[in-house]
Write a structure and sequence with these properties.
Blueprint (H helix, E strand, L loop, with lengths): L9 E3 L11 H6 L5 H6 L7 E5 L7 H6 L3 E6 L2 H5 L7 E3 L11 E6 L9 H13 L1 E10 L5 H4 L5 E4 L2 E12 L2 E9 L4 E9 L3 H10 L2 E6 L6 E6 L7
Parallel strand pairs: 2-3, 2-5, 3-4, 5-6
Antiparallel strand pairs: 1-10, 6-12, 7-8, 8-9, 9-10, 11-12
The structure holds S-adenosylmethionine.
């Protein structure tokens, strides 16, 4: 069986590009798109929150401004450098993270759960579970069902000052696609090419269950934002 790992991810454009193909400068320029409000309404005021894959702090900043005590994790030093003094940062792969402390909320956004590497998905979700305090929650952002079928090469949409386009989307079987997205500002253009796995709700919930997590609630009408809780301790994870 083919493993669609992040080794197949890439990016083009000016400046530093992360291992998974993201441009540091593009994420530094990108406005938020409702994410902070979803998170702030899903956790108690003043909660401690571990943000996994925080990038350039696009969402970190409004969460800190909203009163959360955020710790930002990313494997890209260039990304974390953009966060500056806004929040404590940890340079680490999410899979390997073991901070020895737990948080009121752990956030795994940006569709990282849709990795096309099943083993990696398990490791990401177990990292969420082991950093969640008793009574705490995990906040996840997943691709909406049917997204791959809905996207076509040439589709474009605006996000603030940026135009996003689907450069190509290639179904690879088993619900995995390789997608190339273009991000264009007036003065600069980037692309990111990545694999992603469509996860139906049953499959998504089964992946959570394997990691000792269960859905509390789908938080948005499109069911992309999810709050989960820990259902059992897992030895050795
Ligand atoms: C698509 S960007 C999104 C950044 C941020 N969440 C946002 O919404 O602006 C994904 C970020 O996650 C980081 N990342 C992806 N996989 C990771 C992993 N396994 N461990 C640590 N960081 C990871 C990348 O370096 C990148 O900064």
């Amino acid at each position: 069986m083919t493993a669609f790992t992040r080794d197949g991810h890439s990016g083009t454009g000016p400046g530093a590009i992360t291992r998974d193909g993201c441009s540091v400068e593009m994420y530094s320029r990108l406005p938020t798109h409702g994410e902070p409000d979803v998170v702030l309404s899903a956790v108690p005021p003043g909660a401690s929150l571990l943000e996994l894959g925080a990038g350039a702090g696009r969402v970190t900043r409004p969460l800190v401004a909203g009163g959360l005590a955020v710790t930002a994790v990313d494997e890209s030093a260039e990304m974390l450098a953009q966060i500056g003094e806004t929040a404590p940062t940890v340079l680490s792969a999410i899979e390997d993270l073991d901070l020895g402390r737990q948080f009121d909320a752990v956030m795994l956004a940006s569709f990282l759960v849709n990795t096309a590497d099943d083993a990696q998905r398990g490791r990401l979700l177990r990292a969420c579970r082991r950093h969640t305090a008793p009574g705490g929650c995990v906040l996840l952002q997943r691709e909406r069902d049917g997204l791959h079928e809905a996207l076509n090469a040439g589709d474009t949409w605006d996000r603030g000052p940026m135009k996003i386009s689907v450069v190509s989307i290639e179904p690879l079987g088993g619900g995995v696609s390789r997608t190339c997205i273009g991000y264009a500002f007036e003065d600069a253009r980037w692309t990111q090419t990545f694999f992603s796995q469509n996860l139906s709700e049953p499959r998504f919930e089964a992946a959570l269950a394997d990691a000792g997590l269960a859905v509390d609630a789908y938080l948005t009408d499109d069911r992309t934002w999810v709050r989960a809780h820990v259902v059992r301790a897992q030895p050795g994870s």
